[in-house]
């Protein structure tokens, strides 16, 4: 169980890092919108990353209804 949690935490860190990096790239492309298709793909990737981040966070910290 501990190994699985460590793997998920490592993956979570990687996803968050990529998500932040995409923020930077998207901000730059928005300022100079030469390639709209590339911008759309990056935004879509960012949404996929956000979904993966939420999934892992929910597995690591489940909601407890009191």
Automatic annotation (TrEMBL):
Pfam families: DUF465. It comes from the Bacteria. This is DUF465 domain-containing protein. It comes from Asaia siamensis.
């Amino acid at each position: 169980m501990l190994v699985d949690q460590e793997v998920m935490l490592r993956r979570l860190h990687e996803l968050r890092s990529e998500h932040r990096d995409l923020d930077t790239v998207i901000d730059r492309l928005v300022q100079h919108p030469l390639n709209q298709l590339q911008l759309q793909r990056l935004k879509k990737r960012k949404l996929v990353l956000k979904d993966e981040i939420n999934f892992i966070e929910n597995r690591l910290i489940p909601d407890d209804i009191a």
